[in-house]
Amino acid sequence: MRIEILKRPQNSPLMAVAAPLLAIGLTLITGAVIFVALGKDPLYGLYVFYVEPLTALWTIEELAVKAVPLILIALGLSLCYRANAWNIGAEGQFTLGAITGAIIPVYFPEWNSWMVLPLMLVMGAAGGLFWASIPAFLRVRFGASEILTSLMLVYVAQHFLDWLLRGPFRNPNGFNYGETRIFQEAARVPILIADTRVRIGLVIALVAVPLIWFLLRRTLAGFAVDVVGQAPRAARFGGFSRNKVIVGTFMASGAFAGLAGILEAAGPLGQLKPVLSPGYGFTAIIVAFVGRLNPVAIVFAGILIALSYLGGEAAQISLRLSEKMARVFQGVLLFYVLACNTLVHNRIRIVRSPRPASAPAAGSAVEVGNGNR
Amino acid sequence: MGIAESVVATIITASLPLLLAALGELVAERSGVLNLGVEGMMMMGAVAAFGIAFATGNGGLGVLAAVLAGMAMALLFAGVALGLAANQVAAGLALTLLGLGLAGPIGEGWVDRPGVKLPTLDVPVLSDLPFVGPLLFSQDPLFYLAVALTAGVAWFLFRTRPGLILRSVGDNPHSAYALGLPVLRIRLAAVLFGGACAGLAGAYLALVYTPIYNETMTGGRGWIALALVVFATWLPVRLAVGALLFGAASILQLHAQALGVGVPSQLLTAMPYLVTILVLVLISRNRVLLRSHTPASLGQPFVPER
User: Fold this and answer.
1) Which of A6, A133, A166, A335 to mutate to test the interface with B (most CBs of B within 10 A)?
2) Chain B residue closest to A326 (CA)?
3) Fold of B3-293
4) What is the pLDDT of residues B254-278, one digit of tens each?
5) In contact, B200 and B45? CB cutoff 8 Å
6) Which residues of chain A lie closer than 8 angstroms to B93, CB-CB?
7) Coil, helix or strand for A108?
8) What tens digit of pLDDT does each residue of B152-200 get?
9) Region A87-99: what's the mean pLDDT?
10) CATH T-level assignment (fold) for domain A2-355
11) Alpha carbon distance A372, A369 (integer Å)
């Protein structure tokens, strides 16, 4: 018995919806198995991870706080991945966005105009955009792998932040800790709903969703992204520049990651610290794929992954498990999503008969080869 | 050991995990499979090596566990990327995220604990030679293994029939399949070899390189190994040279920090990553050189036609 993959003539619309749900189901089953292996009650474990965080108001607020950067970054990344351009350095662009956005509150702490925050957001987005444009430029100009260079720049950004926090950005009133001063009130992202931790970053993320959707479905630029990604040859004949698309999608995703960075620094954090995110830039890669690179689905994927972060924290308290279990669940989920994605493009058939002459014997193969020539 | 000897010795130590991981990736890529999960496989190798050696006190068992862990991770990747013909870039990323994720809870109890060190093996007579003796003939077993593997891979790929077959699968899987070669099985073997090597690299980090366990033990070395394969234009011997250069860059920046040259230490720490970018740019500029060595079907999923 063996498994055969047969290409579908057309992508299955049913599977496009069913595949991520199937992946989530498989992740839950795997999670239950892991809990049993760790000697915990599997149902209680899953309850703690995925349900308990939804039962209290403050955890729902926390869910929104964590989902905002994930959704924003994943929206940008989905553009890149649709174009087959591989930006995996969003974590670095997030860091740089936080840095450039923080220039105003660090150097002009007395400035309390309404202009401060919008300026910071623009500067943050510009910082992320700049950082992402480096691998894009190196790719189109020199052919250097954007995968590797964008990732290397994550480490560079991290060390740059570390240097700033111990030098130019250090809090002059602090006790030599590697932190900036607390941002002034005008440099903080306002709270959206009184007495909660939910800030207007949520609105920005939710406004970005229809924008990206519109870009992809209703504009030539969005069309170019999909054509370059799915049919590079057709794109070339159609006059779409692959290089322009690579640079454009990288810049857009960098801007989104940078915006997420400054929203985080000026929002929940209120200052720059050596560790700005629990790996949002990397986790957003998972969000983008779980959302099948679709802007609307990415919102749900972002909430789901944010939920697993909270679940990790809850599991640490009530199950005495490492909060890092969250990252295991996230990794497992991504694997299942990629595996189940195959069902969208292909039909899987289980064949009972022994292997037919699918791989022709060496002798006949020579004939085939000659015949082709 | 004199100063020069000890500097060279540390360079060799720094380059070895890169060489081991990159060798495995080179073979996988020669078969046409781009596995970006090196960092994750390496981390799981390090975790397995540290844990088993810690529990049993036996470094050899640790190495064995690392190899098996690396191969198990590679098998996961192969299931998705080869079996289900998923996007290799995404599947490799998933492997890295999963490996780094798994390492967290598994290794949590060992953070900052000292581990088991592999013993050094002296080659009789040769280890008494001046300079080269202590550097090349008084090393840990993984060093000798890495040297043998480099020569072995070079010989296998370019001097044997199975090596030729593996390269042909990487260059044109459709023709290879038409000639009756089991393309996916060959790719699976290459990917598993890559996993084993990444596991060895992890074992080296856990049992030789770092005296204590920490969660960022791999520190991007898996990604640097991926860049090294490009730098070496998919040739094993160049890989060894490249690994030494990268090792030198990372060690010299440490010495520069100790000497207190007028440059921020963070810039020096970021140096290996900057050097990687620079090297990628320099090598990628030379399109002719790259095109003549890059496996032609690198990264493209293969589905047998029936």
Assistant:
1) A335
2) B101
3) ABC transporter involved in vitamin B12 uptake, BtuC (1.10.3470)
4) 888 888 777 888 888 898 899 999 9
5) yes
6) 88, 285, 334
7) coil
8) 999 999 999 999 999 999 999 999 999 999 999 999 999 999 999 999 9
9) 97
10) ABC transporter involved in vitamin B12 uptake, BtuC (1.10.3470)
11) 5
Measuring CA to CA, which residue among A289, A316, A321, A317 is closest to residue A305?
A289
Helix, strand or coil for residue A357?
coil
How far apart are alpha carbons B295 and A140 in whole angstroms? 20
DSSP output for A111-159: ---TTHHHHHHHHHHHHHHHHHHHHHHHHHHH---HHHHHHHHHHHHHH
B266/A369 Cβ within 8 A = no
Confidence band, pLDDT 50/70/90 cuts, at residue A354:
low
Q: Are the C-beta atoms of residues A141 and A156 closer than 8 Å to each other?
A: no
Q: Rg of chain B's alpha carbons, rounded to an integer? A: 19
Region for residue A180 given its phi and psi (left: phi exceeds 0; alpha: psi -120 to 50; beta: otherwise):
beta
Cα–Cα dist B90/B86, whole Å: 8
Burial of A2 from C-beta contacts in 10 A (0-12 / 13-18 / 19+):
exposed
Separation between Cα atoms, residue B263 and residue B300, nearest integer Å: 43
Residue B202 has pLDDT above 90, yes or no: yes
Coil, strand, or helix at residue B104? helix
List the one residue out of B242, B240, B194, B228 whose CA is nearest residue B92. B194
Chain A interface includes B161 (CB < 8 A)? no
